[in-house]
Design a protein that fits this description.
287 residues, mainly alpha, Growth Hormone, Chain: A, 12 helices
Length: 287
Amino acid sequence: MNLKLQLKILSFLQFCLWGSWLTTLGSYMFVTLKFDGASIGAVYSSLGIAAVFMPTLLGIVADKWLSAKWVYALCHVVGAITLFMAAEVTTPGAMFFVILLNSLAYMPTLGLINTISYYRLQSAGMDIVTDFPPIRIWGTIGFILAMWGVSFSGFELSHMQLYIGATPSVLLVQLTFTLPHIPVANQQKNQSWTSMLGLDAFALFKNKRMAIFFIFSMMLGAELQITNMFGNTFLHSFDKDPLFASSFIVQHASVMMSISQISETLFILTIPFFLSRYGINNVMLIS
């Protein structure tokens, strides 16, 4: 299979599985399972909890002991199993636990897929800056199409969205077997555990500009999580008003929410041009 096509499929499936449930799980829990807001917030907090430490830990494994592609495959095996389990869960406590397990498996794959893509592109003598964005954009396209598929199938308030999400995970495991061997980097022999865990990065906060950048990023992350949790739920709440109950936006809230990802897709395409022409500082200022 053509290298770029293979990486595009990998990126497409990686985010397709997330798009099938990330923005609609809140509505399913609130409307169908009757969870309260605090319980929904707790479930979504599991993504952040997992993202704090799990990518680093599995990154160490991929650097020292096991090829990144096999770590990636194992993560998706766990991810598929936990999504199948989540589809059968009906209580807040159990949902938190299962989604936490899923997040512990999924969050590291966001970094691992970049590692795999970068290695393959560099091995083929390609430029990551110019060749990777057109590949990565297929991830966002996958996210959008998954949102639309779940919405037009009438599964925004159904557990079926979780079954749909598990399917790309299974396909990704199979696709991993077709990838060439990716050697263990083994670059961390003489590094301290502080460095391996990335804790020395906190020294960057001494730089005022970096501190402002990190704080700004955290605020954007918090805003995004609120939208993921309750944006779809908010739009569905209008079905109680007869004036809006049958409107397209209420019936297909995910399609409306996908405007965010469509915007992302368009801007990803412009990154190589703007970075080369204006530099990272001006690009950040514009954004």
